[in-house]
Design brief:
The complex is a heterodimer of chains A (212) and B (182). By secondary structure, chain A is α+β, with helices and mostly antiparallel strands. Chain A has 3 helices and 10 strands. The radius of gyration of chain B is 18 Å and the shape is elongated. The chains are: A alpha+beta (212), B mainly alpha (182).
């Protein structure tokens, strides 16, 4: 049983401007097809196997999100990725500010973001999202297996949300999640529509940045 | 199978919360709706089942990123279309000709009047000769009977581009099928 909201398909009655020839061709192709008896079992076998893998994308998204196209109404500012050495000095100042972020309830200490200490160069990118009405903003991306709740942004000022994320060199896709339900691309960054039809943004680190 | 009265959105929420078994309800609801499109696109029922299975698994993996769970059907359609394209592209790179399932055609010949069988065979061969984007657009418009707005949503192409693909597909099918007894 499907509800009305999910209806997606042919309307009642015949389509307009269809020639007789095309109608004969189409009618032949409209003959129904059916899956084999074991199709459901095979699909669910694969799904259950996938469910046993380390969770990557399967996290709760509560409520019904707005169409992602709404993102254009929320201008954002994104600082371009910079070399790790140059950012190290900047991050010292950011860490100081991060420890004294003022929100509606007053000054609240926020732990400075951890920076991975690896042999590879790690760059720190500060993401900024502007939304005066948001109560909570997080960021999810290819750099954290699209965990929707793992990286919350902090409200740095009224309507200004920010977080600093250490990223290795390479190409990263990301999106903001507003109030746990609305996915928003970064209008100031290069965006694509991913395989799930969701608009996501791209940042490229450590090489010539062509993403914005 | 026991009919599940829950909406698609409710089932999606349950699966995302960890109730994997509920996903079978979505599989059961939509497998027959999309298998025909997959068969017509890739030309073989067996291969179409593989493509559809892959689409369902991919949808499961990305379920948390379904922005509108109540419109799961449309979201799944996008994935099915993309899986068909990907499969056809990979098959072309393996330099295999698009060959329709001969055993199926033989079965059809045994069960159907010869004229109807030949007509259907010729249509499927002609369809297989269309470029993928034209085949896809023709099937979505004239076989699955979607609106151009719906086609825009699931293919990402503009209405003007889709109309052109459909037009060219119709013209090419007419060329290929002209003179074939119907």
């Amino acid at each position: 049983m499907t509800n009305d909201k999910s209806h997606f398909g042919p309307p009642a009655g015949k389509a307009d401007d269809r020639t007789e020839f095309i109608e004969r061709v189409s009618a032949a192709l409209r003959a129904p097809e059916h899956v084999s008896e074991r199709f459901d079992d095979r699909v669910m076998g694969a799904v259950r196997a996938a469910s046993l893998e380390p969770r990557t994308e399967l996290k709760a998204v509560t409520g019904h999100g707005d169409r992602v196209a709404q993102w254009w109404r929320r201008p954002t500012i994104q600082l371009s990725p910079v070399h790790a050495l140059a950012l190290a000095a900047g991050m010292a100042a950011v860490a100081f500010l991060g420890g004294n972020i003022l929100d509606g309830a007053g000054v609240r200490a926020v732990p400075a973001p951890a920076i991975a200490q690896t042999s590879d160069t790690v760059h720190v990118v500060r993401f900024v999202f502007m939304d005066a009405d948001a109560r909570r903003v997080t960021i999810a991306g290819s750099f954290n297996s699209w965990e929707t709740e793992a990286l919350p942004l902090v409200r740095a000022a009224t309507g200004v949300w920010t977080v600093a994320v250490p990223l290795p060199a390479g190409r990263h896709e990301y999106a903001f999640i507003v109030d746990g339900e609305r996915w928003a691309a970064d209008p100031s960054a290069f965006s694509i529509t991913d395989e799930f039809g969701t608009a996501t943004s791209i940042v490229t680190i450590g090489e010539q940045d062509t993403s914005s | 199978m026991i009919v599940d009265a829950r909406s698609d959105g409710q089932i999606v929420a349950a699966v995302v919360a960890g109730d994997v078994d509920s996903y079978t309800q979505l599989v059961h609801r939509y497998r027959d709706r999309y298998i025909r499109f997959a068969v017509r696109m890739v030309g073989s029922p067996d291969e179409a089942e593989d493509v559809l299975q892959s689409a369902f698994v991919r949808a499961y993996r990305g379920l948390a990123r379904c922005a509108e769970p109540e419109r799961f059907a449309a979201w799944l359609y996008t994935i099915v279309v993309n899986e068909c394209r990907t499969y056809i592209s990979r098959r072309a790179r393996r330099e295999q000709r698009i060959v329709y399932d001969d055993s199926r055609l033989e079965f059809a010949a045994a069960e159907q009047p010869a004229d109807a069988d030949m007509w259907r065979e010729e249509i499927e061969r002609a369809l297989g000769q269309l470029p993928v984007d034209q085949r896809e657009a023709f099937l979505l418009k004239h076989v699955e009977e979607l609106s151009y707005e719906e086609m825009e949503e699931i293919t990402g192409a503009s209405t003007s581009a889709l109309k052109m693909r459909v037009k060219r597909a119709c013209e090419r099918l007419r060329e290929l099928l002209e003179g074939v007894p119907q």
